[in-house]
Amino acid sequence: MDNGILEVFPKLDEVPPGIASQFEEMIRCYLQTKSKTPTLDIFRVFKHVGQVYDDEGKLVCLCKASRDAKKEAAVYILDHPLSAHRSVSSELTGFGGATPTVFIRTEEASGCLVWFVENNNGVIGDHKHYQFSTLPEGISKLSIFHLRFGCADSHNRNTVTKIDAQKVHHLTPIDFYRILSSNQQVQVLFNHNVQSPKSQQIIITR
């Protein structure tokens, strides 16, 4: 493949045009950022996560180096919207809220590019329980998402929250590389009282 990219998953010609265009833009920005800064700027304190910028210097996606990076791309494809499967739907966000994720491999390394969630208000763990309010369907979607993919690393630091004008937190799962494995415990954290949140944990052994 051109520009030093040896492998892309999913293949761009096997996804709908809208998603392929999104992936192409993420890869283009990655190559452009690498040409200017061969060693990507680290995202916060996460040494395995680099920052990728667009032409205007805006953070558009994160580059995560991981041997299981292809799993994260697989989760995005499988987390299709309710309207249709990924093979026919260009809707970028699926049922569980996974953000666009594409796996790439170069001669130097392999990893995944994850679209950056803009204007977020941190992760759930940044908020006190009395500051946190969400809708029941948001908790249901998050729980179903983690159960479906056998996520073994779901916690309040792996869920991004965006607060709307009504002070309601909308949840987006992130960092789900510990998934799709056998013989592991699946942990689902959910809030069963949106007015006075308390965490309850379900542990299921697969």
On the 0-100 scale, what is the average pLDDT?
A: 81
Within the largest sheet, what's the order of strands?
Answer: 1-5-6-4-3-2
Number of domains: 2
Poorly predicted runs are 188-206
Polypeptide structure, described:
The protein is α+β, with helices and mostly antiparallel strands. It folds into 2 domains: 2-115, no CATH class; 124-205, no CATH class. The protein is 21% helix and 28% strand. It has helices at residues 17-36, 69-78, 136-148, and strands spanning 5-9, 42-43, 46-53, 59-65, 101-106, 110-115, 159-163, 169-173, 185-191, 199-205. The strands form 3 sheets. The chain has a 6-stranded antiparallel β-sheet. The protein has a two-stranded antiparallel sheet with strand order 7-8. It has a two-stranded antiparallel sheet with strand order 9-10. A hairpin with a 2-residue loop joins β2 (42-43) and β3. It is globular and about 45 Å long. The protein starts with a strand and ends with a strand. The model is unreliable at 188-206 (pLDDT under 50).
Structure summarized in a few sentences:
With 206 residues, the chain is an alpha+beta fold. It has helices at 17-36, 69-78, 136-148; strands spanning 5-9, 42-43, 46-53, 59-65, 101-106, 110-115, 159-163, 169-173, 185-191, 199-205. The longest helix is centred in the N-terminal third of the chain and has 20 residues, at 17-36.
